[in-house]
Design goal:
With 471 residues, the protein is mainly alpha-helical. The chain has 16 helices and no strands. The protein has a single domain, classed as Growth Hormone, Chain: A (Up-down Bundle). 49% of the residues are buried.
Length: 471
């Protein structure tokens, strides 16, 4: 047992390099990963990548689900209380973008195993740290200290996510399109699991209490729910390490990494890729070939982060007064659940219904741009505060939740389609077999750039609603 734990937490150091002399990549027509029949072993690989995809967005989902709790630690008169989601989303996304840009520089010539393992260890440490900080320190800090500490913790979370994301997408792109879809599906799946847990805890907290100090009890229950989420996140990080370990010992692992090891050999030789302009030249060439898909996946998340969660958390039930299970403490977690279910269904559409996969990059870009129409739709919902004499145009909880579900579906579907087209030579002839790992991480970088752009634009949308971008 102790030996198993030791090998789990120690980074893989064994030499898994194949013999790369005379290495020649296998053409897509000989072994198209989308058409490959999956046996039991391939299903195990799929679920390992699903778990790693979940790990990529674990910290983000834990963070946004605990933002209402973190905001409650600020006094009612603080402007940060209403804009904390925008502050933390911006810090997370720009930190992720910066660190991912650094990781991208060597993604094509460095084995992803060590980076992947180290980032999971950092994620585990941060989840454990948040588990103890939530009840013991954060509620007692002054606002002038609380906001900088939250921003610092958010930056460390973005660091672990950036290197994990670069490693996972590079490895998945090398393995094949089904594994890229597994990563995208896992990202949506972890969001659903986190939001389900949050809704259950919120409903339990909303049940009638027999105590005389309901406000204090409700606060304690919310803190306990946040602690439970981050503790589950730590257990999740351990599960992701196990999934990574299973991939490392897989019989095909060294073959999958052959392109990276080949580049390492050539980079060490005179006249290799280091003298041809290096990885930077290859990266720029791939970026130009895939610019439509890269812009499409970026714009998907620019639109999403413009309103979710900074604006959607201000949309409340139209019932006045709302019943107990439609009060903000339950309605806001439930809205996370609805979006995440839609997002997960959208991410699983390409693998469940292959007919929904099409290779037209222009159509993908147009679909992405069309999502911009969701922004005014949310602005005509019941955004609070609102003048009492002006009812919202969408004056229905069901109508709002339907818009939110469609928002999630299109987010998951278009982003997944963009990612698999970006790194699949079988679907995108512009990309060569030896370029697919770099193409995959470039698309992931653009995805994060979209998150960063959306988090900044949320301040502008906040200004449209409240007349003040920062409070």
């Amino acid at each position: 047992m102790f030996e198993t734990l030791r090998t789990l937490f120690i980074s893989p150091t064994g030499d898994v390099r194949p013999i790369t002399s005379g290495y020649e990549v296998i053409g897509a027509e000989e072994d198209d990963p989308i058409e490959r029949r999956k046996g039991d072993d391939e299903r195990g690989v799929y679920w390992c990548f699903w778990a790693l995809g979940a790990g990529v967005l674990l910290s983000w989902n834990l963070l946004i689900c605990t933002i209402p709790l973190l905001a409650s630690f600020f006094p009612p008169t603080s402007g940060v209380k209403t804009t904390l989601a925008s502050w933390l989303a911006s810090a997370y996304c720009f930190g992720n973008l910066t660190f991912l840009g650094i990781a991208q520089r060597n993604v094509g010539i460095i084995s992803p195993s060590i980076r992947l393992h180290s980032s999971l260890l950092l994620l585990l440490a941060l989840c454990l740290l948040q588990t103890f900080l939530l009840p013991l320190l954060l509620p007692h800090l002054a606002p002038t200290l609380l906001l900088p500490l939250l921003l610092l913790l958010t930056l460390f979370l973005s660091l672990s996510t950036a290197y994990l994301q670069a490693s996972v997408f590079a490895l998945a792109a090398l393995w094949g399109s089904p594994q890229v879809l597994a990563v995208m599906s896992g990202q949506g799946g972890i969001a659903v699991l986190v939001s389900v847990t949050q809704v259950i805890l919120a409903v339990i907290s909303a049940l009638p209490s027999t105590g005389s100090d309901d406000g204090r009890i409700e606060g304690e229950q919310s803190t306990l729910a946040g602690v439970g989420l981050w503790a589950l996140g730590a257990l999740g990080a351990i599960a992701f390490m196990i999934a990574h370990r299973r991939l490392v010992v897989h019989q095909d692992y060294s073959i999958i990494l052959a392109p990276i090891f080949a580049r390492q050999q050539y980079a060490d030789l005179d006249g290799g890729i280091s003298k041809d302009g290096g990885m930077g030249t290859m990266t720029r060439r791939i970026f130009r070939k895939n610019w439509m898909l890269e812009f499409a996946v970026a714009w998907v998340f620019v639109v999403t982060l413009s309103v979710f969660p900074p604006i959607t958390t201000a949309i409340l039930s139209v019932h006045t007064p709302p019943p107990r299970l439609l009060q903000p403490a339950v309605f806001i977690p439930f809205h996370f659940f609805i979006f995440n279910v839609g997002d997960y269904l959208g991410r699983t559409c390409p693998s469940s219904f292959p007919s929904l996969i099409f290779a037209s990059r222009r159509r993908v870009l147009l679909l992405s741009l069309a999502r911009t129409l969701f922004i005014p739709l949310f602005l005509v919902c019941n955004v609070v505060p609102r003048p009492p004499a002006s009812p919202p145009l969408i004056n229905s909880d069901l109508g709002y939740l339907s818009v939110l579900l469609a928002f999630g579906l299109t987010n998951g579907y278009i982003s997944s389609l963009s990612m698999i087209l970006s790194s699949s030579p079988a679907l995108n002839p512009a990309i060569a077999e030896e370029e697919k790992d770099i193409a995959g991480t470039l698309a992931a970088f653009c995805l994060v750039a979209g998150l960063a752009g959306g988090s900044v634009s949320s301040f502008g949308v906040n200004w449209l609603i409240r007349g003040n971008a920062f409070g």
